[in-house]
Design goal:
The complex is a heterodimer.
Chain A: H1 2-6, H2 8-12, H3 15-24, H4 45-67, H5 74-95, H6 107-137, H7 142-146
Helix pairs in contact in A: 4-5
Chain B: H1 2-10, H2 12-20, H3 29-54, H4 64-67, H5 70-95, H6 99-129, H7 138-171, H8 175-208
Helix pairs in contact in B: 3-7, 3-8, 5-6, 5-8, 6-7, 7-8
Classes of the chains: A mainly alpha, B mainly alpha.
């Protein structure tokens, strides 16, 4: 019975549950002697190489798009390189920073999501507000001045 | 009841669970360091926002097209990317308990990092020599602040890396040094992530204006 009781959470349980159970479980001997990092996941050679190759491709394409300009439309090019940057950031997070939903009992991911929300608010908010400030503040020509409310 | 217990014993996921899952935190250091990185992320977000707001105010000075040289930036980017994977190799050697190989990969990482900072400083010196220093326009002020802050982070990363190499040479791969190397690993890869934002948002998009 005691064996059965330990298992239901382990497979599909959230990271928080899993971390907690591992702490209680006497089978999980934790020590520093066997190449055991302090809580951080260490990747594999395969993971690092995949991450590196993906990053090389995801870096090379935007640079090629801007240096060779195969697309004449700069708006479209901007959008494409932005997408490449976001994908590459995600690749780095997964393969180099070893981020997943269960590291540190899910707190790493929670902190990241919270930070991303703040980053998006700060960036989009600044650009939005300042763009309107620029258009509303300074009449650039006598024509604009005459049309002022 | 007995069949249930046998099923559970035979089930492979129960065995595999402790091997495949994350290690549980032994103390709060890694989480704390992650929170620090997130706060650093906010610092960079504010600098990016400042660049987004001021980046087009050239004050009749040179703009991005006149200043930036993409081949240099590409070389810079590859230096940082290579340093990221060599740091990864150092972490893999650390997991295998090989002190010499860890130190060698750390040294290579430090060299790539130094090459990155050197190239960036050369670029900055070139700009300043052309009269495009941080005082020239709001665009250049925000550019130097954003890119300079990143470069300063890399510089401190290199100092930290050299310090840890001395520590590992003196004391070996003791638990404390493993923890410190794990923290620096996060820091180093995080700086590479920020650089993705810099080369996309500042350099590539600057050339498209």
């Amino acid at each position: 019975m005691s064996i059965a009781s330990g298992t239901p959470h382990s497979e599909a349980g959230s990271g928080h549950d899993a971390g907690h159970e591992a702490e209680l479980d006497p089978r999980h001997v934790h020590g520093h002697d066997a190449g055991h990092g302090s809580g951080a996941a260490h990747g594999t050679l395969k993971g690092y190489v995949i991450g590196f190759l993906l990053s090389v491709v995801l870096t090379a394409i935007p640079f090629w798009l801007v240096m060779a300009r195969p697309l004449q439309d700069s708006q479209a090019t901007m959008l494409i390189i932005l997408v490449f940057a976001i994908v590459q950031i995600i690749v780095h997070m997964i393969y180099f920073l070893h981020l997943n939903t269960s590291s540190e009992g899910g707190w790493n991911m929670l902190a990241l999501i919270f930070t991303m929300v703040l980053v998006v608010i700060a960036l989009s908010g600044s650009m939005w507000v300042m763009y309107h400030m620029n258009t509303n503040m300074m009449p650039m020509s006598p024509q604009d001045m005459r049309n002022m409310p | 009841m007995s069949t249930h217990a046998t099923d559970t014993l035979n089930a492979p996921p129960a065995q595999g669970f402790y091997l495949t899952s994350e290690h549980h935190p032994e103390n709060g250091t890694m989480l704390g360091f992650w929170i620090y990185l997130m706060s650093d992320c906010l610092v960079f977000a504010v600098l990016f926002a400042m660049y987004a707001v001021l980046g087009r105010n050239y004050a009749a000075g040179p703009g991005p097209r006149a200043l930036f040289e993409l081949p240099t930036v590409l070389l810079n980017t590859s230096m940082l990317l290579l340093s990221s994977i060599t740091y990864g190799f150092a972490m893999l050697e650390m997991a295998r308990n090989r002190t010499g190989a860890t130190l060698a990969w750390l040294a290579i990482t430090g060299c790539f990092g130094a090459a990155f900072v050197g190239l960036e400083l050369t670029e900055f010196a070139h700009f300043i020599h052309e009269g495009a220093g941080p005082q020239r326009s709001a665009f250049l002020s925000s550019f130097f602040t954003l890119v300079g802050t990143h470069g300063l982070h890399v510089t401190f990363g290199i100092i930290w890396l050299v310090t840890l190499m001395v520590q590992v040479t003196k004391h070996g791969l003791i638990p404390e040094n493993r923890r410190r190397l794990s923290c620096l690993s996060l820091f180093w890869h995080f700086l590479d992530v920020v650089w993705i934002g810099v080369f996309t948002f500042v350099y590539l998009m600057g050339m498209l204006r």
